[in-house]
Amino acid sequence: MAAVGSAEYTEEPTTNVKFQRSLNLPGCSGSLSLLGTGYREKVFAIIGVKVYAAGLYVNPSILSKLNAWKGQSTSEIQESPYLFNLIFQSPLEKSLQIVLVRDVDGKTFWDALDDAISPRIKALTSIDESALSTIRSIFQGRPLKKGTFIFLTWLDSSKMLVCVSSDGLPSNVDATIESGNVTLALFDAFFGNAPVSPSLKDSVAKGLTTILK
Description:
Blueprint: E1 9-11, E2 18-20, E3 22-23, E4 32-44, E5 47-58, H1 74-78, H2 81-89, E6 94-100, E7 104-105, H3 106-117, H4 126-139, E8 143-144, E9 149-156, E10 159-165, E11 175-177, H5 180-191, H6 198-211
Antiparallel strand pairs: 1-2, 3-4, 4-5, 5-6, 6-9, 7-8, 9-10, 10-11
Helix pairs in contact: 3-4
């Protein structure tokens, strides 16, 4: 189902979470534009439970690097690892906004992130372990209430900012992560071949199809 919304917001249709069409975040050089939205579902005792909605924002200048995909279908764009890798490698900001749609214990959220990150890194270096420890420390012992915003913002392919806010858009950065393996693993978890939120990758591909007509 396509995302719908007003001029300023796009509504993720499964969770009804509203995402701003553009926003400014700490550490970014300018406004970022929303490409697509989706949701994450976890299965508990065979019942699917929606945990969060998510939206991908990018520096609009990234789009000018994607002209090779002009006129391609949504499925061609979605199945192109090179396109998503190009977005990741670009030294321009992209940010994943996560909006919790239920209360989640911080450790539970971290464990889910770690389950997505760790298998994607073949051999952890001390830099990777330090980066993972930093992310863990943000969430461990922290109750995450419904409506909490979590932003994972890639400044380039090896530097990422983490912001958590329970009161609207964040005004400061909780942590800076500098590990190419960890930043790539997180991006791949959402936009690689086996995304944790297929609906988000599908929506982003549809958004790119529209932009690259």
